[in-house]
Specification:
Layout: H1 4-17, H2 38-70, H3 76-98, H4 100-113, H5 117-129, H6 133-160, H7 173-188
Helix pairs in contact: 1-6, 2-3, 2-4, 2-5, 2-6, 3-4, 3-5, 5-6, 6-7
Membrane topology: Multi-pass membrane protein
Keywords: Membrane, Translocase, Transmembrane, Transmembrane helix, Transport
Subcellular location: Endomembrane system
């Protein structure tokens, strides 16, 4: 069983030094509205977090009880690549039947999470690193929270940046890339942070 200190190290790594959006560049292919509207970024982030936690649970169970037990680790990527879209489809159907109002509000975000590489990447990293179940769930939860904070911060900064004051050649995507690069550089100081 993982100690509290190990779990705290996994949580800090997922939040800061291995942030899926800013450091690992996973999850960038989400809805473009998430990079402009902070509320859309938060909705996309909590959908991503929910899928990452469910995906981590299912990936750990499949890896531990099926792939590891029968020596089928070479099918891991295929299984995980099918698992995440299957989870999203099941979650969308469940919400549509049980909570239609919530389904109506977040269906667009859930669609985009089905192909989000942060959800697949977290499940793959959990399997490759052989995390225990509590560590896997904490890694996915904190990774999702870190991605949500990064998306919401980026969207908030986009609303605050005065594009009229920057040179014309930097307007649009160039200034967005510079902003993302500066945000990622802020997290570089946490790289290699371990609790021993």
């Amino acid at each position: 069983m993982a100690s509290i200190l190990e779990l705290a190290g996994v949580a800090l790594a997922a939040l800061l030094s291995e942030n899926f959006v800013l450091v690992s560049c996973m999850g960038i292919g989400t809805r473009t509205e998430a990079f402009r509207d902070p509320m859309d970024a938060v909705r996309t982030g909590y959908c991503l977090t929910a899928v990452m936690v469910l995906g981590a649970l299912c990936a750990w169970l499949i890896d531990f009880f099926l792939l590891g037990r029968f020596g089928w680790q070479h099918y891991r990527l295929l299984v995980l690549a099918l698992l995440i879209p299957g989870l999203v489809a099941g979650l969308r159907k469940f919400l549509k039947v049980c909570i239609p109002e919530l389904s109506r509000r977040i269906d667009g975000q859930l669609k985009s999470v089905a192909t989000n590489c942060a959800a697949l990447g977290s499940a793959l990293l959990i399997s490759q690193r052989s995390y225990s179940l509590p560590a896997a769930l904490i890694f996915a939860l904190c990774g999702g929270i870190g991605a949500t904070v990064a998306l919401a911060s980026f969207a908030g900064l986009q609303n605050e940046v005065d594009l009229e004051s920057c040179p014309r050649s930097f307007r649009g995507i160039p200034i967005q890339l510079i902003t993302a690069g500066l945000m990622a550089m802020a997290l570089v100081g946490y790289y290699g942070l371990h609790l021993d």
